[in-house]
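Notes for week 9. Today we move from apo structures to complexes. The key idea is that a small molecule is not decoration. When we ask for a structure prediction with zinc ion present, the ligand SMILES becomes part of the input, just like the chain. The input block below holds both the sequence and the ligand string. Read it once before you look at the output, and try to guess where the molecule might sit.
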Amino acid sequence: MSKMSLEGIEQAMLDDLRHRVVEVARGLFENKLVVSTFGVVSTRIPKTDCVLVTPSGFSKARLDKDNLIIVDLDANLVQGKFRPSVETPLHTYIHKRRPELSTVIHTHSPMACAFAAANREIPCVSAEQAFHLGGRIPIVRKYSLPGTTERTELENIVKALENIDAVLMRKHGVVVVGRTPEEALDTAIVLEDIATIALHSIVLSRPIEFSRRELKYLKDFKKTRYGQKLGTT
Ligand SMILES: [Zn+2]
């Protein structure tokens, strides 16, 4: 048990965060990014060194707010009646190294996993990928077993996430990060979509990847021309 205290945390904020984590976990299930009891969602509780994480062995379809567990950044239990996911050390390590992030998601989404199993990066062959993720989806440098707590292996995953919000873990799955729980879910959905496009394009032909110049254009385009500006209609 951790000595970390939850004193002073606004209960309404924590309750809202629990609700959002459950919604994101359901979203993973509904979008077929996780099956059975696989997949993990973890969210940093603002202004604390604590993380909300999904329990081990639960289907994401029947998750409830009260089933979530709170752990500290060393993956020690702070609050909760169930065991946290076996991938909790991976999640808390990323939260520790990337405090600006809100949420880490781990899935075994099938098309992205096909690339991970084949030990191949996802080439950037669709505008969706270039636009949303900004380039190739890298693969973590070395293989690590599920549930790893090895610092060097966890550091490899953090390193792979340096310039992109999604990475592939060899023979295993994907890790996606976001600045909000909803952003992380959106990226997990987009990742599976772009993996599907890339895989089919490779089956059909030898697709040409986006060039550096095109990627830069799309990055600027996203920043300056896409979506709505706050304060305008
Ligand atoms: Zn896994």
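The longest helix spans residues 181-204.
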